Amino acid sequence: QKEVEQDPGPLSVPEGAIVSLNCTYSNSAFQYFMWYRQYSRKGPELLMYTYSSGNKEDGRFTAQVDKSSKYISLFIRDSQPSDSATYLCAMSGGANAGKSTFGDGTTLTVKP
Amino acid sequence: SQTIHQWPATLVQPVGSPLSLECTVEGTSNPNLYWYRQAAGRGLQLLFYSVGIGQISSEVPQNLSASRPQDRQFILSSKKLLLSDSGFYLCAWSGKANQPQHFGDGTRLSIL
């Protein structure tokens, strides 16, 4: 079983929809949680970086961490066609503090 | 601000030929450096990471090697490429423990 499981998608939504992207994990030592956006043929770009449980908001993006359930989410409000990309969750902490563990990504398409 | 440069963007090589991919980071010192491979539609596979000059950890036994001759330079090499070495190679850097990684734009390697 993988340490990080990400909803595989793909996900297709109309423009303006609220999008929910999710990951679960098994390692209770994880304390730092990241979301990356990756456009086709590009490297992943850091979107959100959070520590421990709670919510963090940045514009249309909200990252939510529930450590008790080992579950993290990224919400995108008022989704735009430019949000069409693959989203990767990542987390770190514990013995392997220098490395991150990544989900396999969810591909999102926002249709105009 | 910090930037990461990775080149070339695209590379086509014959089986059995050597490989050298280079990655450099600007605007920071003593970063952690990482090499990943990403198969199409898949997650990130960590190949190597380095916490300092000459310090390389290999994550997966394979046909590749890495070197860090200078603080902000990370090189991925092979003496003889295999067909299975095809993929999208990404370099990343981070500050020390638990800080998020930042990626270059990758090299798409095709082996013929």
Main pleated-sheet profile of chain B: 7 strands, mixed
| Element-level helix/strand string of chain B | EEEEEEEEEEE
- What is the averaged pLDDT score of chain B? 93
Helix percentage of chain A: under 10%
Q: What are the key terms here?
A:
heterodimer, A: 112 residues, mainly beta, six-stranded mixed β-sheet, five-stranded antiparallel β-sheet, 0% helix, B: 112 residues, seven-stranded mixed β-sheet, four-stranded antiparallel β-sheet, globular
Characterise the protein shown here.
The complex is a heterodimer of chains A (112) and B (112). Chain A has 112 residues and is mainly β. Chain A is built from no helices and eleven strands. Chain A has strands at 4-6, 11-14, 19-25, 32-38, 45-51, 54-58, 61-66, 71-76, 85-92, 101-102, 106-111. The mean pLDDT of chain A is 94. With 112 residues, chain B is mostly beta strands. Chain B is 0% helix and 57% strand. In chain B, the strands form two sheets. In chain B, strands 2, 4, 5, 6, 9, 10 and 11 form a seven-stranded mixed β-sheet that branches. The A-B interface holds A 31-32, 34, 36, 41-46, 49, 88, 90, 92-93, 97-100, 102-105, 107 and B 6, 32, 34, 41-44, 46, 49, 51, 90, 92, 94, 96-98, 100-106, 108.
